[in-house]
Design goal:
By secondary structure, the protein is α/β, with parallel strands linked by helices. The chain is built from eight helices and ten strands. Bound molecules: adenosine-5'-triphosphate and magnesium ion (MG).
């Protein structure tokens, strides 16, 4: 599904922050992306979402060579990806319902089906009563739940989540993780960037650890002991 081959990345003329990243993410797999603050987790996720291109090396996503990709094609490709941004990026002029409905509307889903799916996922994350307010009226944790609902509602083939439990309490954090695992069981490839060790340790998945700009794959058996 995603293949990095000796990818490097630098912002503008700044220093290279990611070096020689080589990793393959299989369809239907589940990975944690870990590493200290500033390690480059969000940057790496943004490359997987066609937001940034490698400054060297080869990156292929869903069969597309990112370096050769016409920018006009990216919106269509992004529709196959669910993403939870670290800073949520909800649209404040739209209601909670309409924020979550957006991916389905873009995909041309019928309003009747869309309405059922959006309502169901919002009730699941505990926001059934807040569907028609602006995200501005919600707490940080609630906004994060809206961002999560928007990312999963279309059952994407690839789910990228950047610190998706950073603003919610432990109980909701575990619920969210179960939701991601459910999606994974249905065939979605899931990549979760997080430095919440308590949470990561409870879920047995391969860890991709960024250290000094390099990516190390840590298999489950070893990752659980960290
Ligand atoms: N738009 C930008 N322009 C220049 N440098 C940037 C930009 N965004 C991030 N950086 C730098 O790139 C490095 C990696 O940042 P990134 O946000 O990817 O790290 P992160 O692992 O997601 O950190 P955190 O755990 O705090 O979210 C940092 O040194 C950061 O200062
Ligand atoms: Mg980040």
């Amino acid at each position: 599904m995603i293949s990095f081959d000796k990818v490097g990345f630098q912002y503008g003329v700044g220093p290279e922050i990611l070096h020689d990243i080589s990793v393959t993410i299989e369809a239907g797999s589940f990975h944690f992306l870990t590493g200290p603050s500033g390690a480059g987790k969000s940057t790496l996720l943004s490359m997987m979402h066609f937001d940034r291109r490698p400054t060297r090396g080869f990156l292929s996503i869903m069969g597309e060579n990112v370096a050769m990709l016409a920018r006009a094609k990216t919106p269509l490709l992004r529709r196959k990806i669910g993403i939870v941004f670290q800073d949520f990026r909800l649209l404040e002029h739209l209601s909670v319902f309409d924020n979550v409905a957006l991916p389905l509307r873009l995909a041309g889903e019928k309003e009747r089906i869309l309405s059922r799916n959006v309502t169901e996922i919002l009730e699941w994350v505990g926001l059934g009563k807040a569907m028609h307010v602006s995200p501005r009226a919600l707490s940080g944790g609630e906004q994060q739940c809206v961002a999560i609902a928007r990312a999963v509602v279309g059952r994407p083939g690839l789910l990228l989540a950047d610190e998706p439990t950073g603003s919610v309490d432990d109980v909701i954090g575990q619920r969210v993780m179960r939701l991601f695992e459910e999606l994974h069981r249905l065939g979605t490839a899931v990549i979760i960037a997080s430095h919440n060790e308590n949470l990561i340790r409870r879920f047995p998945h391969t860890r991709l650890e960024l250290m000094d700009g390099h990516l190390v794959r840590i298999p489950v058996e070893f990752g659980m002991k960290l």
